[in-house]
Amino acid sequence: MRTLALASLLLWVPLWTACGSEVEVTGIWQTPEDASVDLSALQIDQQVLLEIVAVQYGKDVSGLLRLFTQAYAPSHLWGKCPCMYLESADFRSDKLSFLITLCADSPPVEILCPGTEGDCTVTGVFTLDENDPDRMTGRFFDSEGTMIREGIELERVGDDNNIREEGLNLGCPE
Amino acid sequence: MPRVITTLLLLLSLPAISARSLGADLPERKPKKVLVLPTVLMEPSCESIFSGEPRTSPLAARLHRQLETSLGTLLDIQVLPFVQARSTIVKRRFYQERVVVGRERYLLAKEYYRDLRQTEAVENLERSIDTLIGIYYDLVEPEALAEILLLAGVTLVEVGHFPEAHLAFKKALSLNPMLHLTRGFFPEPVERAITIACTDLQEGSSGLQPQELGRYQALAKELGVDSLFFSRIITREDRLFFDLTVLEKKGGNIAFQEEVPLSGDPAADGEAVDRLASRWTACAPFEKPQRTVEQLHKYLFSASYQQMAYLSYPTRTMLHNMGFSFEVGAYVLDSFGLVGKVQVISSLPDRFGDVLTPLTSTRLILGPSFSLTGQWWRLSMVPAAELHIQGPFKTSTDPDCKFFAAGSAGYTDMCDTSRVKNYPTAVVGGVNVALGAQFFFINRLFLSATMSISSYFLPLDRSKELNFPVALEVGGGVAF
Description:
With 174 residues, chain A is of the alpha+beta class. Chain A has helices at residues 2-18, 107-112, 160-165; strands spanning 27-30, 37-38, 47-57, 60-68, 83-92, 95-102, 120-128, 135-141, 147-158. Helix content of chain B is 37%, strand content 34%. Chain B has helices spanning 2-22, 59-72, 82-90, 95-114, 118-134, 137-140, 142-158, 162-175, 188-203, 213-223, 266-283, 293-296, 399-403, 409-414; strands at 32-36, 40-41, 77-80, 227-236, 239-248, 254-261, 299-312, 319-333, 336-347, 355-357, 360-373, 377-390, 393-396, 420-423, 426-442, 445-458, 467-479. Chain B has an 8-stranded antiparallel beta barrel with strand order 7-8-9-11-12-15-16-17. In chain B, strands 1, 2, 3, 4, 5 and 6 form a 6-stranded mixed beta sheet that branches. A 3-stranded antiparallel beta sheet of chain B has the order 10-13-14. In chain B, α7 packs across α9 (188-203). At the A-B interface, α1, β4 and β5 of A face β7, α13, α14 and β17 of B.
């Protein structure tokens, strides 16, 4: 009888916890259009708009990082290497961490990974604003852990539904 | 083993079958439980209160016994012996304490009366009477209460409350008709008031006062009897009559009141009482027997919403499901039936999205139902066999396999398909135990709630990652 009572409790506990007000990173995050990011450290020779598409599953995160030139529109995608996958991404203690693998022939590779045969990766760490869960600030580190850019501000402009409506769950087409 | 079960089932069914065949020719009615209060022998004349010696006659006790015996021989009548009822009253909670309180109030009132403080005496007498009447002391020690009522009547006359005094004397005389007083002991107005009360009591149509009906109805409820019999022997024009009044618990009204002349011959008087009892039973209202749910409804159909969770699951958090359950039941015996269920359920998204394609499954459950029932409720336990057809589904803990749509560039580039686990359609079997409750709210309609757990062990060679579903069902149904 006690087992049955425990089982019945167990039945409902996850439902309650699932309904908790846990802060999540799921959404479309963009730099404001009037505050484009200087990524000259990555040999990106112009100001770019940065977009992170992330969906959270527990602590695990999956998603994309895209770069735009003047506006968030397919026609304004950065010409050289506009879309990268978030790899080994997770969200812990209000910090979104991920790796991105730079395109082999893109200019940053020559700076960050000179003479490297394998993939060249950059680590991104973004921290959610304590007061506003729809804002986060981040930094990029090179493969040796040296910070190459900081103070990148992103704001949440869409949720999981927007991601699927816009087909962002299809990945980075060739 | 099957032979033992068959024999057991047959033995269980015998009482029901025999009861049905025996009762087939008789009108269905609930047996009536009755209580005969002691027969009161009224004085032939009110003058005798102040003259002569008290009468003692075995007639009242004999006719009381006769009435109990006569009623006991009637069909569907159960007599609660007065001795037993009296014992029940005495054993009630706080009875003894209240007797002490009531008696002490009386003694205090007597002191006040002796000190000529009638107002305080009346106050204490009223409280004493209220306390003692409240515990039915008049049925246990009628003469003792009559003594208190007599003093109350005397005091009330002295303070000028004549109507209340009249009622007190009347009640005192009805409790102790053998009451004898010495003429001249009380003042003349008191003697006159007693005589008037006596005359009123003798001319009254019954020994029951209207304000007492509610109290006796409450007594009937407490003792669990349907009818209360009040009888008295009265004298009219030098002839004795046996006067019978019956109070019905249901409605709290007097349902029967008649009298028969007494001849003085014990055998003839016994027959007269017997006839009176038969006359009552001919017109007495009988209730239909209250039948349990199974007796009323042999078959049932219900539909329920179901919330279910597996206690053993292949995901990182508990796998919840929702669905619907349809149940049919047939009760072949009281408290025993067969129940079958068909349930269709589908998995809900788990917290981490580990289930990539939802699991839809069907459960077939069949087993005996053992139940406890009342007139509007049934509690049941169903140990059953279960066949569970689990549809195909996929799980993964890789976030990239969850986020990117299958077949997309993202899925191809990022999802490690070796981390996607495919579960083909599976048929598993086991046992299911359900505890349920049904509440009938409108005749055949009921609301139901059931909790169940299953354990799968067939096929024996299968590693069962998905097992021990615990379910809660809430729904309603119809019985017929």
